[in-house]
Specification:
One of its GO terms (molecular function) is GTP binding. InterPro entries: G_CP_dom, Gnl3_N_dom, GTP-bd, GTP-bd_ortho_bundle_sf, P-loop_NTPase, TRAFAC_YlqF/YawG_RiboMat. The chain is an alpha/beta fold. It contains 21 helices and 10 strands. The strands form 3 sheets. A 6-stranded mixed sheet has the order 3-2-1-4-6-5, with helices on both faces. The protein has a two-stranded antiparallel ribbon with strand order 7-10. Strands 8-9 form a two-stranded parallel sheet. α2 packs antiparallel against α18, α2 packs antiparallel against α19 and α11 crosses α12. It is elongated, with a radius of gyration of 46 Å. The chain starts with 11 loop residues before the first helix and ends in a 21-residue tail after the last helix.
Length: 559
């Protein structure tokens, strides 16, 4: 039951008692006022009618009042000037303090910005990636199954194979559920001739606190596609067998271009969300160590930086720069490159869009269909282009590329190197496990998947010295503004002299007002003033002298 407010109603007995007390109080107050009596203010009797020169005296009294008012106004103006000068001086002091504080804060912000820039900079990415390669015994190069050749980095493979140490390189074909089975088999047969290749499908939705809430709220939703993981047992077996041959705990580095699923693979092997994942590129900024078991450590690494010499397609799909931060021209070029490497009919079927002549028309139609409009119903081409790039790098669009017709080994790979990389691994078991994974996967049909023409291997930058950083904007400090502020708040010597003069004027006015206060008496007393008193009161330094007016002159003797 809801609580009600207390009632303000009173019993009649109580109400009458309160009214009686109030009446008694008012009566008492009136009695005391009668006893005291009312003191009326005394009125000025004015100049008696019998007094000689009455009109002159009244005129002189009025003139005194006017002069007193003028003096008061002068004093008021001087006070205002003095307050303004004080305000200026205080503002100057405050500005000096603010500048000192601003310098301190700017120094702190610079150090913070430097730290942030160090973490987000391409050089730090290269530094962390090199740490992972040097520290790992086995390097897993993660490839997107939709475009495996475009995800391979020759610089990385050369750095691992030619390191001189006993490092192994494994290829992981991730996102296998977005590719037709026939195409996936072709790629596995092509890649296993160079490096041991594992077909993998990572779980994108890991078990954590939010997972239970999703199950409770949406019980009917099929979460099998996002929570199921394929290929994890096969990969763990391979790593454990290699660890037994080495007779030590091994460190496994996971490397690759952005959005290929490096962190998702580690989470799938661990069974818990150990690493942060997201659609944005470059979520992982430093090396992270995740313990799978006593004998295996996984090292998560930042993405490989795509070399600027790559074609527009490679830069659009494999660049580490986020689509939100990149310019609209770069995004549009990237979308144009993607559309040029795809079948137009299949793109129209996938997006349910009519025929289009160019990229802008395609983006306009797509924006209108998805309701991405600006003010006035104008299609938002920039945002729809960014969204399309995210879809193609993420796991929303199903497309596949064909492997090359002939097997051409890269210059850094020889038959001896291939044999060295395939040693210590049971390739028969690996092939069986891959076949089991292919049978268990729910792959799209070839008709529903878009045919994509791969641009070949994407060059990456691993060496920190070869990275070209762009100049940061915050380094250009606003020195001109600070100089202008200094000029505004600096006060000249003339202004200081004016302050001193005004102070002297105020002192003189105060002295004059004190003498006038003595001289300003009622007209009846003025009639009885002596000649000397009148002369002293009229010799004040006022604006107008008594000689200029027609007032009565008390210095002359009329008798």
């Amino acid at each position: 039951a809801e609580l009600r407010k207390a009632s303000k109603r009173l019993s009649c007995h109580k109400r009458y008692k309160i009214q009686k007390k109030i009446r008694e109080h008012h009566r008492k107050v009136r009695k005391e006022a009668k006893k005291r009596g009312r003191k009326k203010p005394k009125k000025d009797p004015g100049v008696p009618s019998a007094a000689p020169f009455k009109e002159e005296l009244l005129r002189e009294a009025e003139q005194r009042k006017q002069r007193l008012e003028e003096l008061k106004q002068k004093q008021k103006l001087n006070r205002q000037k003095e307050h303004e000068k004080k305000r200026k001086l205080e503002a100057k002091k405050n500005s000096v303090k603010e500048k000192a504080e601003r310098k301190e804060s700017s120094g702190k912000s610079k150090s913070k910005n430097n730290n942030l820039l160090d973490k987000n900079s391409k050089k730090s990415f290269c530094r962390e990636l090199k740490k992972v390669i040097e520290a790992s015994d086995v390097v897993l190069e993660v490839l997107d199954a939709r475009d495996p050749m475009g995800c391979r980095c020759p610089q990385l493979e050369q750095a691992v194979t030619c390191s001189g140490e006993d490092k192994k390189l494994l290829l992981i074909l991730n996102k296998t559920d977005l590719v037709p089975k026939e195409n996936l088999e072709k790629w596995l047969n092509y890649l296993k001739k160079e490096f041991p290749t594992v077909a993998f499908k990572s779980a994108t939705l890991m078990k954590d606190r939010t997972m239970e809430q999703v199950r409770k709220r949406r019980a009917r939703v099929d979460l099998s596609r996002t929570t199921e993981c394929f290929g994890s047992k096969c990969l763990l077996k391979l790593l454990q067998e290699h660890g037994k041959t080495q007779n030590k705990a091994i460190q496994v580095g996971v490397v690759g271009f952005p959005n290929v699923g490096k962190s998702s693979i580690i989470n799938s092997l661990k069974g818990v969300r150990a690493c942060n994942v997201g659609l944005a590129r470059g979520v992982t900024k430093s090396m992270q160590i995740v313990h799978i078991d006593k004998q295996t450590k996984m090292l998560d690494s930042p993405s490989i930086i795509a070399d600027p010499s790559n074609n527009t397609l490679a830069l659009a799909l494999r660049s580490i720069i986020d689509t939100e931060e990149s310019g609209s021209a770069d995004v549009l070029e990237g979308v144009d490159a993607i559309l040029n490497h795809c079948s137009k009919q299949q793109v129209m079927m996938h997006y349910s869009i009519p025929d289009f002549r160019n990229t802008e028309e395609f983006l306009t139609l797509l924006a209108q269909k998805r309701g991405m409009l600006k003010k006035g119903g104008v299609p938002d081409i920039e945002n729809i282009a960014k969204l399309l790039l995210c879809d193609w790098t993420g796991a929303k669009v199903s497309y596949h590329s064909q492997p090359p017709g002939s097997q051409r080994l890269p210059p850094y790979l020889t038959e001896d190197k291939i044999a060295e990389m395939q040693a210590c691994f049971n390739l028969k078991n690996l092939e069986e496990e891959n076949n089991n994974t292919l049978q268990a996967l729910k792959c799209p049909s070839p008709a529903s998947s878009i045919i994509f023409q791969s641009a070949g291997m994407a060059n990456g930058t691993i060496e920190e010295n070869k990275v070209t950083e762009e100049a940061s904007e915050w380094e250009n400090l606003e020195t001109s503004k600070e100089e202008e502020e200094e000029e505004d708040f600096t006060e000249s010597d003339d202004d200081q002299d004016d302050v001193e003069e005004d102070n002297n004027d105020v002192k003189e006015v105060n002295q004059a007002s004190s003498t006038l206060a003595v001289a300003l008496v009622s007209p009846t007393h003025d009639f009885l003033f002596s000649e000397t008193e009148h002369s002293n009161s009229l010799l004040l330094s006022l604006d107008k002298t008594a000689d200029e007016d027609d007032a009565y002159d008390f210095n002359t003797d009329y008798v």
